[in-house]
Records
---
Amino acid sequence: MRRRENPLNLRTQFIANLRDRHRTVRMTTEVADYVNQERADLAFHFDRGPLRDCFDQRHIGVLTQAVFVASAHSLLQKQAVRRTDLARYRQLVMHAEDVEESIYSPRVWRSDSFYTLAEMVADDLGWAILPVNIANDDRHAKSLRQVSCPSLALPLLSVRMLWCQGKTLGTVAHWVEKRFMKLLQESCR
């Protein structure tokens, strides 16, 4: 029987698999800039609104989101958290590409990286809405806990692939796209 891959550490699996096949892999917060500067052929990132005109793009999958707090946070004592409960604590918000998430707390800190937000939550600096796969990544799994907040209907987070407009993608790019799509599908099961 084939062992099923753990979708929770999606990024780790993907990078390890990619590194096995291709020796130069770089990760950056502003991956679109690397593509625009032709330092990378393609990039994957969360769909956060319109792209600059210089890119072509393709939707490749979605990720679930949830509310997360530090493992010793007092909100964990509640079975279901209300938005008024969240408002009593600092919210850590994703803010990139001039797009900002919904604000539910009067006290807010911002970052342009979900990974940085996860680390801030783990350090008990506040709560955040995070992609579940990032919060459950090996680095954060023990220090972050998901809380139920039925009054927040969180949308799926769209992931897209982008490349320079008009450029033809090669065999490696198509393999990377298919592999990442498969890992995204497995993470939503």
---
Amino acid sequence: MVLDLVAPSGGRLRVTLPSDQDQVTSVAAGVRFAGGSYGTGFQIGPRGYHDFASTHVAPGRTSDRFLVHGREVVVAEADDRESSVATLMGTYHELMTVYAGPAGGGTAGCGGR
């Protein structure tokens, strides 16, 4: 299997995997920051990652959109109000984090603008 990927910089990357490996259907990366009594996880995925999460993982609706350093941030709240996701939109990829509970209206759930 050959994966033709786009790096966050927009550069092209080709990865060849042995044919006896399971098929790769999606490529994502994650990073977790933890310390003291808190922890935050971020997932990096291709464009469409946020829409997939708020349609199939935690069905919900967009509750806010705003710009941070010229990039769009989209906040969605799950219909059951059990979780919210905030996603920084890149040209080729998205950086998403998940919060417990409702978005809180406006940008209050994201620490402001």
